[in-house]
Structures are given as C-alpha cells and as structure tokens.
Please model this.
Amino acid sequence: MQRPRKAILLSAGRGRRLARVTHGAPKCLVPVQGHRTLLELQLRALARCGFGHAVVMVGYGAERVEATLADLELPGLDVATAYNPFSETSDNLMTAWLARPLMTEDFLLLNGDTLFDDAILNRLVAEARGPVTMAMARKRAYDDDDMKVVLDGSGRLQAIGKALPGLSPDGEAIGMTLFRGEGIAGFRQILDEIAHSKDAQRAWYTAALDGLADRLPIQPVATGESWWAEVDTERDLLAVRDALDSPSRREEMREGSAQVASFL
Model:
C-alpha cells in the first residue's frame, strides 16, 4: 500500500490541568524538551517518518500556535492550520468533525498531547492492512483516565472508551490512528452522526471509533517496548521531560514497557 502523506493533529485544547505551567498558552505549546514544545516534537517526528503534509487543528490560543509554526523550520513537511471556534466548550470530537473536509486521502489522526518513538508510527504504517489501524499499548492496570480498548476474538476492536462497564481492557489507545480507503468515508460519516446528537459537545472522537467498529474492522498495532507518553497533568509533564532529557531514564521506561508486554 502507498504510504500516507497527510497527518491531522488535534491540538485545539487549552490543557486546563496544566494551567499552572502553561501560563495561558495552549497545551500544544508546553515546552517538553528544553524550548521544544509538544507540537514541535510531534511535527519533527512526522517529518522523520515520511509525512509531507500536516494540518494542525487549533482553537484556544490559535494565534500563538500559528506564530510559533511560522518560526519553525521543518524540512520536507508542509504545515497548515484549521480553526475550531468551539474548542472552549467542547471535547475533541467536534475538532475531528470540523476536520472532515481535510479527510480526502489516507491520513493519520494524532492527539495533540501524545509523544512517541518513531518506531511506533513506522510500525503502525507498515502493519496497516485494513481501513482503520490504531496504536495500542498494554499495561498491567488501567486507570479512569485511560482510553481503554477491548478486542474481539479475532483481535479487532470491539469497544473503546474511558468507561467500559463489564468489559476487561486489552490495552489503551495512545491517540494515533491511521485511516485508509473506506475507513475515511466511514469515519467521516459517523463523526457527522455523533456531531448532530445531543451529547456531541462532551464527546471524544473515540466515540466515533467505538461506533465504527460495528461497521468496519479496526486493527490494533501494539506499541511493544517502544516509548510513548501522553501529557495531561503536571506529573505527566515532569515524567516526559525526565525521559526526554535522560537517555537512561527513557531506557528504563522502555524496559518497563517490554516487561508489561511480556507479562500480558
């Protein structure tokens, strides 16, 4: 299959749980490695992994994001922005819904607060065989904030959500999903259906994946021992800075992931 060239980043959020350290900046502009921000590290990873075009969905602090992007040099990667005027009053399903006109070819959908080793993205692209492929990590235990994943007997997605009563999680979605062919049209359609429902403002885009799993096969690709992190809280931020600044600490985290994968 042809390698996808487009990525859409959901970076419209404010990051209220990081308010003490953002100083009014949007979440995606939080420095995580020296002066380098979440957004910059994501874009540089996309460029290294062969993506040629990225669209950053912005909302809160849009002007600051656009000014930051204007000063970035990202050889081989063309970057544009699209605006969500509802970012202060809605969760990210509405941001994904507003991105539907951009979903015209195979594309990667990436959460604006997920950092990852290049190996995870390269593996996701290399192992994608069906219309929708998502990166999934395995853990010994899952907390209330994890986006939990349940697989069916054939290893495909059965359900995804933070609360899955009566179901035992098989993993956690890390916020990286690849759409191809009929998966693009299917995702656009179900986003539109949910966006017209009464709960749309408080929904995550993973609700669309949950519904889409009843219509199309969604294939998980495990992160294995490769490092990844989600930055939601100050504790997350400190751990990520530590991992990025200390190769030995990052290696410890990789080894921990490998032990979990072996344990499961």
User: Anything to note?
Assistant: The first strand starts at residue 6 and ends at 10. The two ends are 31 Å apart (CA to CA). The chain has nine helices and 13 strands.
